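Here is the promised in-class demo. Please do not try to memorize the tokens; focus on the logic of going from shape to residues.
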């Protein structure tokens, strides 16, 4: 059984006093607020309706989220001195309530015969994972639009598994294709998935198609898209929020070799690398699920992202990292 703390982490959602819905990003959080991205906003003409009849709109693009907050709720844009930039974040005293993935799945199970087709499929897939991987029911949760109660008939199954050991068990089961009713993306569904996830990257489409077809933590459960997010627990990370400072060095394209992919299944994901052109570049990191399971050890890769100089204030050490996915033009592909 996992040891989730009371503080929300990746996979959780929080609702503010104004009714804004944010998705929590990352595992290690500041003491006084949560790093979280705006996801749903109250909108009388919105196409998402909550169980109590309120309407919302989903905000997809990161810049649109920033613009909305700048214009209407600037208190949720926070300049983090340690990171040297503005982040979307919710102060603790602005949180009206927290939506826990573990509680969300538990409540779904309690619906019994009253579940919709999507809810039944979500509960069934989660239970199959629990049974096959040998994890506890409290290790897996429901996230995404279903957790918020703003799902539609076109929504996906979004699950989250907490704990490194538990996540590796789940990944092994999905990798071996031993779960009934699950399939990897293929055919037209793979093409649609590519259009959604990698729009604007036609240059790399053939490479990305091969990558996405092999990923185990995503696919189809019967006819429904699913994605399983693997998240470490805070006490498995080995550091606190204030241990590092970050200095942005601009956008960079790098050519490097992956030396360690053991954290590639997690969100956030990390790839350790060696780079001749930038010897102090130690790792590629991403808070976006699209970069999980993406490249492998010993592969030479090309990546575009935000270059950061990272300083460990507890050890007086520094290194560079490339952050992927905060710009729609970022990419990571193997090269020959």
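The designed amino acids, position by position:
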């Amino acid at each position: 059984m996992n040891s989730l703390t009371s503080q929300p982490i990746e996979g959780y959602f929080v609702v503010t006093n104004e009714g804004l819905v944010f998705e929590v990003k990352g595992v290690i959080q500041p003491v006084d607020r949560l790093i979280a991205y705006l996801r749903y906003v109250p909108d009388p003409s919105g196409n998402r309706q909550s169980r109590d009849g309120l309407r919302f709109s989903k905000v997809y693009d990161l810049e649109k989220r920033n613009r909305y907050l700048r214009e209407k709720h600037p208190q949720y844009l926070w300049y983090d001195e340690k990171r040297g930039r503005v982040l979307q974040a919710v102060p603790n005293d602005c949180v009206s309530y927290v939506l826990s993935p573990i509680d969300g799945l538990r409540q779904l199970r309690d619906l019994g015969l009253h579940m919709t087709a999507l809810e039944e499929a979500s509960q069934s897939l989660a239970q199959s994972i629990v049974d096959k991987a040998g994890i506890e029911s409290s290790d897996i949760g429901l996230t995404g639009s279903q957790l918020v109660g703003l799902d539609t008939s076109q929504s996906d199954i979004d699950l989250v598994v907490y704990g490194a050991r538990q996540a590796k068990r789940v990944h092994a089961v999905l990798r071996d294709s031993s779960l009934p009713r699950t399939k990897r993306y293929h055919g037209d569904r793979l093409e649609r998935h590519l259009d959604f996830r990698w729009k604007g990257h036609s240059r790399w489409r053939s490479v990305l198609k091969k990558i996405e077809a092999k990923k185990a933590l995503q696919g189809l459960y019967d006819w429904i898209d699913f994605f399983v997010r693997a998240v470490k627990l805070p006490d498995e990370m080995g550091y606190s929020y204030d241990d590092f400072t970050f200095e942005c060095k601009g956008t960079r394209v790098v050519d490097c070799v992956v030396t360690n992919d053991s954290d590639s299944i997690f969100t956030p994901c990390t790839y350790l690398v060696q780079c001749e052109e930038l010897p102090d570049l130690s790792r590629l990191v991403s808070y976006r699920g699209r970069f999980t399971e993406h490249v492998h050890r010993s592969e030479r890769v090309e990546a575009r992202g935000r270059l950061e100089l990272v300083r460990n204030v507890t050890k007086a050490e520094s290194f560079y990292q490339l952050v992927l996915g905060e710009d729609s033009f970022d990419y990571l592909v193997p090269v020959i």
